[in-house]
Amino acid sequence: MNKRELDPHTSPAAEFGAFLRTSREQRGWTQEHLAGLCGCTSSHISALENGRRRPTQRIAAALDRAFGTSQAGTFKHRASDVKYSSLLDGFAEFVTQEHRAVELRLFELGIVPGLLQTREYATAIAAGAVRRRSITQDQADERVRVLMGRQVGMRREPPPLVHVVMDESCIRRAVGGDAVMAAQLDHLVEFAGEPTVRLQIAPYLLGEDRAFDLPVSILTLPDRSLISYAESAHQGRLERDINAVTAELAAYYQLQTHALSQADSVAMIRELRRQL
């Protein structure tokens, strides 16, 4: 049985998995026994409990039959919460690994990386998505709640080493009005002052030499293994293949080489802040 701790607050998929695990263990059932009752494999149950797989209505109905909750539809209702979540597949497992990582390397473009956002900035970004009707208000609230939880996890002891490269667009794109943007830029300067942080801006002048065209996160875990996570508007992908992640890491090193130094990056942020 592949059991690992899962924070139920990171996503609806993680909450579903934690509820399923607790329900199973309260009955004294093994994953194999529950799988037999549901007509699936034990690895399927493990993936659900670990948040790696989203529950379908079919498996939720089977779980309700197994636990005798068909009339209440307990698992079907919880599966619906996962289905309509604004969080992408693979994200729940990434967040779990993020909380364990000893070193993080982040690249973002367009908006400030989530781990560096103020609550007001994050709320403004989510509100924009609501106005565009790409997510609901409940989903917007979920995004902000999950983000704030991730930031709390980064303040653990000892803190992880954090490398951040932001495309210049992240600090030039106005979000939430002058007051929100001023506070966000102040927060970036404060963040850059932490001894375990390296913050750099990838200037527009890099042009086609910028290493990445999508946001990417590369995590170093306590055993020194590497994983990465990248996402587009509608899909998230967690990568464990060492060859693929090593290639991404090499590209990240190249990006750091071409980006502005931390001193020059902070100077650029301060100048933008002065103009507000």
Question: Biggest sheet, in brief?
Answer: 6 strands, mixed
Instruction: Report the helical percentage.
Output: 40-55%
Distance between the termini: 55 Å
Q: What is the tally of helical segments? A: 12
Q: Give the class-level CATH name of the largest domain.
A: Alpha Beta
Strand order of the largest sheet: 3-2-1-4-5-6
Summarize this structure as a short list of keywords or feature phrases.
6 strands; 2 domains; six-stranded mixed beta sheet; alpha/beta; Endonuclease, Chain A; 12 helices; 434 Repressor (Amino-terminal Domain)
Characterization of the model:
The protein has 2 domains: 12-83, lambda repressor-like DNA-binding domains (434 Repressor (Amino-terminal Domain)), CATH 1.10.260.40; 91-275, 2-Layer Sandwich (Endonuclease, Chain A), CATH 3.30.870. 51% of the residues lie in helices and 12% in strands. It contains 12 helices and 6 strands. The protein has helices at 12-27, 31-38, 42-49, 57-67, 74-83, 91-98, 119-131, 137-153, 169-172, 178-192, 242-258, 262-275, and strands spanning 103-108, 161-167, 197-202, 216-220, 226-231, 236-239. The chain is elongated. The model has no long low-confidence stretch (mean pLDDT 90).
The gist of it:
The chain contains twelve helices and six strands. A hairpin with a 4-residue loop joins β5 (226-231) and β6. It has helices spanning 12-27, 31-38, 42-49, 57-67, 74-83, 91-98, 119-131, 137-153, 169-172, 178-192, 242-258, 262-275; strands spanning 103-108, 161-167, 197-202, 216-220, 226-231, 236-239.
